[in-house]
């Protein structure tokens, strides 16, 4: 295992980048702790695979350094980094059997035959391919081949890091859950540093100790799933994490109350704490913290539709000039004459130019 340090790292695919907009990966400084499981999460084109390929050695960055346990490996080839990487689409040796494919990285390292057999058998059980060990890879389905690729990554116990680039794209939904469970068990058993690229928030939140959320080539937040849900550091995190995502309301802070009150549309909302912010101010509230009311104080709102999804209802509303969502428990009544919404105080976040503001001051 290894601690991976990204020092002043940035990358542009242009020979002569002119500014930040020309960088696919904007400047990043971070330590990936030895033995932790990370997920790189973001929409397509946000820089996830670029960052992973720099860590793996498939790409040399335009600026900055990559260090493994303090050793500079920025220009070192992949083979010298002692990593295992699994790609989005399966890479297998069609002329070999499943057993030979799984054993290949171990044989290359001169491991004893008995130990190779033990590890291959163990991994074959993890990926549910024990019955196919002596079958040639040629002719297997795409998801079976991807399981072989995953197995080749998992069969080594001495790697500095395991890197996964959207490895479950071609896997059927039930097997996705099984393989994520096995990857978590592998991490628990052997403590590998793991970095898992995905655009699927369910995969990221169920796999990782910490999730690295990327947007437009920039890391906008690194945190636990709970951090991302309760305190999104950027409006993109609030929008991208959660289903439905966070509601955002344009707001003006009231200076006479030291920023404790905000004007949203025609209503005044008590934020319960003072805030200081400049630029474009928004109040973010997840659907779980929207409360429906009939009459009284609150932001005028109109229900447009109700979606019953089983364990809860999603109430779609129009309020403060925009469409928003509220989550209501399955057994909770929805007032027929709902015409207002209010916010649960613990669910309020304030943003200035898309970055979260801490109570009492500005913070990124």
Automatic annotation (TrEMBL):
Residues 4-241 form the ABC transporter domain. SUPFAM superfamilies: MOP-like, P-loop containing nucleoside triphosphate hydrolases. Gene3D superfamilies: 2.40.50.100, Nucleic acid-binding proteins (2.40.50.140), P-loop containing nucleotide triphosphate hydrolases (3.40.50.300). Pfam families: ABC_tran, OB_MalK. Keywords: ATP-binding, Cell membrane, Membrane, Nucleotide-binding, Transport. SMART domains: AAA. One of its GO terms (cellular component) is ATP-binding cassette (ABC) transporter complex, substrate-binding subunit-containing. GO terms for molecular function: ABC-type ferric iron transporter activity; ATP binding; ATP hydrolysis activity. InterPro entries: AAA+_ATPase, ABC_transporter-like_ATP-bd, ABC_transpr_FbpC, ABC_transpr_MalK/UgpC-like, Mo/tungstate-bd_C_term_dom, NA-bd_OB-fold, OB_MalK-like, P-loop_NTPase. Belongs to the ABC transporter superfamily. PANTHER family: ABC TRANSPORTER ATP-BINDING PROTEIN, MALTODEXTRIN IMPORT ATP-BINDING PROTEIN MSMX. This is Carbohydrate ABC transporter ATP-binding protein, CUT1 family. The lineage of its organism: Bacteria, Pseudomonadati, Pseudomonadota, Alphaproteobacteria, Rhodobacterales.
């Amino acid at each position: 295992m290894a601690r991976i340090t990204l020092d002043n790292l940035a990358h542009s695919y242009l020979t002569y980048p002119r500014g930040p907009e020309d960088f696919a990966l904007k400047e990043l400084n971070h330590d990936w702790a030895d033995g932790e499981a990370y997920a790189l999460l973001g929409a397509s084109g946000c820089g996830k695979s670029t960052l992973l390929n720099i860590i793996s050695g498939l790409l040399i960055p335009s600026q900055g350094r990559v260090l493994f346990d303090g050793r500079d490996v920025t220009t070192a080839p992949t083979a010298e980094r002692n990593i295992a990487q699994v790609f989005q689409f399966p890479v297998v040796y069609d002329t070999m059997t499943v057993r030979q494919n799984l054993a290949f990285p171990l044989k290359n390292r001169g491991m004893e035959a008995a130990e190779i057999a033990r590890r291959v058998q163990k991994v074959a059980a993890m990926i549910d391919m024990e019955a196919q060990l002596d079958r040639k890879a040629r002719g297997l389905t795409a998801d079976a081949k991807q399981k072989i690729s995953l197995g080749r990554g998992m069969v080594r116990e001495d790697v500095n890091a395991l890197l996964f680039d959207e490895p479950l794209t071609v896997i059927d939904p039930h097997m996705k859950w099984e393989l994520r469970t096995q990857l978590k068990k592998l991490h628990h058993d052997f403590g590998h540093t793991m970095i898992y690229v995905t655009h699927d928030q369910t995969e990221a939140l169920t796999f990782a100790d910490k999730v690295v959320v990327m947007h437009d080539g920039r890391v906008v937040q690194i945190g636990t799933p709970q951090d991302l849900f309760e305190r999104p550091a950027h409006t993109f995190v609030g929008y991208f994490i959660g289903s439905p995502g966070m509601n955002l309301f344009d707001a003006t802070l009231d200076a006479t109350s030291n920023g404790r009150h905000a004007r949203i549309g025609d209503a005044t909302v008590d934020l319960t704490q003072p805030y200081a912010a400049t630029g474009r101010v928004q109040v973010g509230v997840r659907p779980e913290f929207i409360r429906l009311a009939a009459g009284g104080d609150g932001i005028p709102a109109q229900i447009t539709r109700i979606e019953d999804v089983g364990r809860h209802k999603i109430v779609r509303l129009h309020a403060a000039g925009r469409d928003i969502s509220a989550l209501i428990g399955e057994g909770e009544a929805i007032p027929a004459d709902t015409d207002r919404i209010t916010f649960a105080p613990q669910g309020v976040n304030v943003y200035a130019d898309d970055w979260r503001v801490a109570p009492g001051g500005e913070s990124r």
